[in-house]
């Protein structure tokens, strides 16, 4: 595709431009001189071109077609949704927001749901306040977690299902929840909503 052998000259090569430069040097007029790109910038540009050309040469023709079709599809989706630019790469701000969202500390959250949505097999339109634990526990990593991770990476622990990092889980549960189902039967469910969360 690209051979990466394009050369860049630092000085203009046309005779008219060389005459203009010689006349400007001989005359004392103060015409503005266009800024020239430094050789270092040219070398950087040339190395980038060679890197991209070698990268594209490593792809097969089918892979390049898939890449182009994915870019075209993404561009058409952006245009159809009212966007004015090609969203190939996420902005730095959105990356920071996602990083902050990934590292929110373990905390108690709540959600109002119907009893049927709890997935416990009860049919009822009554709503309950479901409290749950959400967040990360990076700050609560202990020596146990680090050692367990090391043993897993060395394949000293192979078959057991172990978790090598603390998890945001309920430390205590709220009071029991009572409700009537769709057939007017009375039920009580214990340990349904979290009361306190922590890294365990």
Automatic annotation (TrEMBL):
This is Neurturin. Residues 95-200 form the TGF-beta family profile domain. It comes from Oceanodroma tethys (Wedge-rumped storm-petrel). It holds the Pfam family TGF_beta. It is found in: Secreted. Its main location: secreted. Residues 1-44 are annotated as: Disordered. One of its GO terms (cellular component) is extracellular region. Residues 9-36 have a biased composition (Low complexity). Belongs to the TGF-beta family. GDNF subfamily. PANTHER family: GDNF SUBFAMILY OF TGF-BETA FAMILY, NEURTURIN. Keywords: Disulfide bond, Growth factor, Secreted, Signal. One of its GO terms (biological process) is glial cell-derived neurotrophic factor receptor signaling pathway. PROSITE patterns: TGF_BETA_2 (PS51362). Growth factor that supports the survival of sympathetic neurons in culture. May regulate the development and maintenance of the CNS. Involved in the development of the neural crest. Might control the size of non-neuronal cell population such as haemopoietic cells. Acts by binding to its coreceptor, GFRA2, leading to autophosphorylation and activation of the RET receptor. Heparan sulfate-binding is required for signaling. One of its GO terms (molecular function) is receptor tyrosine kinase binding. The keyword Zinc-finger does not apply. InterPro entries: Cystine-knot_cytokine (IPR029034), GDNF_fam (IPR043401), TGF-b_C (IPR001839). The keyword Signal applies. Homodimer; disulfide-linked. Interacts with GFRA2 coreceptor and RET: forms a 2:2:2 ternary complex composed of NRTN ligand, GFRA2 and RET receptor. Also forms a 4:4:4 tetrameric complex composed of 4 copies of NRTN ligand, GFRA2 and RET receptor, which prevents endocytosis of RET.
